[in-house]
Design a protein that fits this description.
This protein has 472 residues and is mainly α. Among the domains are: 98 residues, Serine Threonine Protein Phosphatase 5, Tetratricopeptide repeat, CATH 1.25.40.10; 80 residues, Serine Threonine Protein Phosphatase 5, Tetratricopeptide repeat. It contains 26 helices and no strands. Helix 12 runs parallel beside helix 14. The two termini are 46 Å apart. The relative contact order is 0.04.
């Protein structure tokens, strides 16, 4: 969730401080007057980004007035922005002890506890904060993060999204509202909407590490490691110790096919997050080649998503019907993870159930149009069904996204060839030959070399469709 800024808190604190200021003006108690002046200077430093200077000023104010909840709250916010969570939590707790029913302090403490994986206490605090103040935006924003972290059911996520979306539609919503909307949409599988909301949050708060991390995650989900790396590098430039980085860097290594490096890097993290530990286990499981042992482990852990995902993939070629069952079970555990549905369809392909596979992929395409694996499988299903007009559209998308993908050029060329679009076929065969691997693609290379002389004679004779647009 987005880092806390001072701007949104100034108005909330103004009324509380005004009463204190009036008392200071009506008394000769100089320490109280001086404490308020120091607090105000701290606010100015906080707003200017001088967090350490702000903390020093808040602490001077607290020495003069130890029971100063506003100063405690803002000191906690400054520590949190520095990534120093222990003193931040202590300050929030102290502020709440001084004013037990202060919903803003409850929301801030609850949000920090969510981040520190203390979810049970966080839930109680946030629930109470919204009971005291049903319009408590920070509390609902933190609730969104908590719901995603604890894998709340889709119905609960949708209800929270409805409330947060209404806040985002209001006049001048704060960055954290857009951020909450983004993480909920991401959890619901609405990747495009999530990226849009994250971008809106970053327009208001450009150094929002959590939102940059979300955009990196969405890019990785969309098989775009280059874009993901751009966001990761920006996070490093802002906050080198950001808690989001270890997981993102591990995922980035996996996306580059560097599994051994990913495992080594994950093992080097001294205090890994729950998500990183799960990913580390997944990497190890992904290396297993013994489906019998994995199935036996499922007997005691029937909802182990790592094993389900591995079996869904491992059995796809040799035992596609069995693989489909594990893909289906994985989808039950993670209903918003489209990869399991794509895996189910890929197993259908291996079982040669092309009509149902194509229908499933076309349905999934509406919600994940940038998913490369999904497009590749859809193209294959359509090709096998001899629906070449539709298949070539998918293969064209694939080569545009990954121009070095030689095999996609081969199937694009064959699709054109079958449609008697000979000029396009010849052009794409030539691209395939230039980019093909002499060992991995030897079978396809031989086919093309046999076909090309005949195809050239057909072109010389003026055969084939005249209105085809040649791919260059």
């Amino acid at each position: 969730m987005s880092r806390v800024t001072t701007a949104g808190l100034l108005v909330l604190l103004a009324l509380a401080l005004s009463a204190l200021a009036v008392r200071a003006q009506e008394t000769t108690d100089d320490p109280e007057t001086e404490a308020i002046a120091l607090f105000n200077k701290g606010q100015d430093a906080h707003e200017a980004g001088d967090l350490k200077g702000a903390i020093a000023l808040y602490e001077k104010a607290l020495k003069l007035i130890p029971n100063f909840p506003e100063a405690e709250l803002q000191r906690g916010n400054a520590y949190q922005s520095l990534g120093d969570f222990e003193p931040a939590e202590s300050s929030f707790r102290r502020a709440l002890s001084l004013r037990p029913e202060w919903s803003l302090a409850m929301a801030n403490l609850g949000a920090l506890l969510v981040r520190r994986e203390k979810t049970d206490e966080a839930k109680q605090l946030l629930k109470r904060a919204t009971e005291i103040n049903p319009e408590n935006t920070p509390a609902y924003v933190a609730f969104a993060t908590l719901a995603v972290k604890t894998n709340a059911p889709p119905a609960e996520l949708k209800e929270l999204h409805k409330r947060i979306a209404a806040m985002a539609a209001a006049a001048r919503p704060v960055a954290s509202v857009w951020a909450a909307k983004a993480i909920l949409e991401n959890a619901l599988g609405e990747k495009k909407a999530s990226a849009f909301s994250a971008a809106r949050s970053l327009e208001i708060e450009p150094k929002n590490v959590a939102m940059l991390g979300l955009l990196a995650s969405v890019a990785l989900d969309s098989a775009d490691p280059d874009q993901a790396e751009t966001h990761v590098l920006k996070i490093e430039s802002i906050e080198a110790s950001a808690p989001e980085l270890p997981l993102l860097k591990t995922r980035l290594l996996l996306a580059r096919g560097k599994n051994d490096e990913a495992l080594k890097f994950a093992a080097s993290i001294s205090n890994p997050s729950k998500e990183l530990l799960e990913l580390k286990t997944q990497i190890v499981a992904a290396a297993s080649s013994d489906p019998v042992a994995l199935e036996k482990q499922l007997d005691t852990e029937p909802r182990n998503i790592i094993i389900l995902r591995r079996l869904c993939s491992m059995l796809r070629t040799g035992q596609p019907l069995k693989a489909m069952e594990f893909c289906r079970r994985a989808l039950e555990v993670e209903p918003n993870n489209i990869d399991h549905a794509v895996g189910f369809g890929a197993a259908m392909l291996q079982a040669k159930d092309y009509p149902n596979a194509a229908a499933l992929f076309q349905k999934l395409l509406a919600s994940a149009p940038e998913n490369f694996t999904l497009r590749a499988n859809l193209a294959t299903a359509l090709f096998q069904l001899k629906r070449y007009n539709e298949a070539k559209v998918q293969f064209q998308w694939l080569v545009e996204k990954q121009p070095e993908n030689a095999v996609a050029y081969f199937f694009l060329a064959v699709s054109h060839d079958q449609l008697e679009e000979y000029a396009d076929a010849a052009a794409n065969y030539q691209i395939f030959l230039r980019r093909a691997d002499q060992k991995a693609n030897q079978l396809e290379i031989d086919k093309v070399k046999l076909r090309m002389p005949i195809l050239q004679r057909q072109l010389d004779a003026g055969k084939g469709l005249k209105n085809a647009k040649t791919k260059t």
